Amino acid sequence: MERYAALSRKTKETEVSLEFSFDGGEIEVSTGVGFFDHMLTAFAVHGGFGLKLKTVGDWHVDCHHTIEDTGIVLGKAFAEALGSKRGINRFGHAYIPMDETLGFAAADISGRPFLVFQAEFPQERTGDFDSCMTEEFFRAFAMNAGITLHLRCEYGKNTHHMIESLFKAAAHALRKAAILNNDDVILSSKGML
């Protein structure tokens, strides 16, 4: 069973098209935000995901709409590619060290979207990426993927490292949660997620 989704979304602010696969594949990311491309590429590599993504946004404003709308579409694709959620592990977590930084993520593919985000970045920007957009991206992703996601940067001094540790931790946690086990059941006492 292939777990794959292809989606696009066009608004007056952005145009996003992507292909997402839980089973790996090509990784091609272009958003016009260099650091964000780096983070999404790391997310795909560490999650073992296939990701072909192109976002064109209203850069004359700032990076906000580009990043948030990418999160919306990636979240929707994640949810669609999961299918029935039958047989998934549902839960996953990971600690990721990156030099002086330690990032943590815990995920529940629950059908109940929620984000808890705890990180204070010492630098306002990393390249052309506003640091505050890290939380906005993950909120858009979690809400549209229908997952509960907790992210915490335990400590760090370099904003690049701190943000990257969170993207990698999220990828590892989500990969573990989405893995198909040998049980053909939905891991919920309700019988549905």
What do these coordinates show?
The structure is a single chain. Helix content is 34%, strand content 31%. The chain has four helices and ten strands, in the order βββαβαβββββαβα. The strands form three sheets. A four-stranded mixed sheet has the order 1-2-4-3, with helices on one face. The chain has a four-stranded mixed sheet with strand order 5-6-10-7. It has a two-stranded antiparallel sheet with strand order 8-9. It has a single domain, classed as Imidazole glycerol phosphate dehydratase, domain 1 (Ribosomal Protein S5, domain 2, 2-Layer Sandwich).
Can you describe this structure in just a few lines?
This protein is α+β, with helices and mostly antiparallel strands and 193 residues long. It has helices at 34-47, 64-82, 133-145, 159-178, and strands at residues 4-10, 14-21, 27-30, 50-57, 91-98, 101-108, 114-118, 125-126, 129-130, 148-155. It has a single domain (4-178), classed as Ribosomal Protein S5, domain 2, CATH 3.30.230.
